[in-house]
Amino acid sequence: MNQREQASRMKKYFPKSIALTIVFVMLLTACFTGSAAASSSSDLIIVNKKTNKLAYYSDGKLVKIFPVATGKTKSLTPEGSFRMVVKIKNRPYYKEKIPGGDPANPLGDRWLGLEVNDTYGTTYAIHGNNNESSIGKYVSAGCIRMHNEDIHWLYPKIAKNTRVIITTSGLDMAGIAEKNGYRLGSTMFAGAFIRGGQKLPVKDSFLLEDSRVYIPLRESVMLLGGSLMQEKGTGSLIIHIGKNTAVHRPLSNTAKVNGKTVEMLPSKSVDGRLYIPLGSLTPLFGLPFTWSAKEAAVKL
Q1: Reported pTM
Q2: Are 166 and 47 in contact (CB under 8 A)?
Q3: 8 and 130: one domain?
Q4: Of 127, 147, 152, 248, which one is the catalytic site residue?
Q5: Does the annotation count 248 as an active-site position?
Q6: Which end of the chain is more exposed for a tag (fewer CB within 10 A), N or C?
Q7: Among 140, 162, 179, which residue terminates a domain?
């Protein structure tokens, strides 16, 4: 029951003067306890029903993505922007009178209740499960199930009032976050290329933004044995690597590769240096690669 409902009941069953006093105390208590329970606006949870994945963002950065299970039909798991308002350990499964913490409890032992359609965290939730094989499937009555190990990791990190976006989308998690007004952050980190088993550290930092890696163009071209010059009159860059010649205007989302226009994510300017998306290495220069997050290295 929320505070508004409690106040209404007080007015009904107590004399007016007493009821007003109790309501005042309730509101005063809420003022002093609310800030401790409130979440930072820097946290966000996204559930994409199309992929049955849950993403946890904090301070503008993607922290972790988990597999989840959602409703048997599309309408069962509601979509929209909701608040996580209730945190419960070992919640009983009242329908079948299964105690909280019991291995047979289909809710697992962690419950993150959502405020959905006037249900104050009691009906819809992100919770554990008693059937690990169900995760990744469309099987629930509306809740979002996680592996028990995963929700044990997530539970202590999430504060009450954290925003939860539930959607069915073809966008990646970063795109969903941006579409819903969440400001994504960026991180600079030391990176390298690995070519022929040789590690080539990059002096200028790599950039991680919107869950994408960007590399410093000029230094990367030189390390890969290419050349770069500026086209007179246009400001575009002419880049040669191997058999490919790419002409790219800084900050644009296209390049001409051997005379043919290729679309790409826009390049970025950081501290006077131009960065291109790591994914552009193949369409622009014909360089297949793999990215090793553990080594912070581009393997060619």
Answers
A1: 0.56
A2: yes
A3: no
A4: 127
A5: no
A6: N
A7: 179
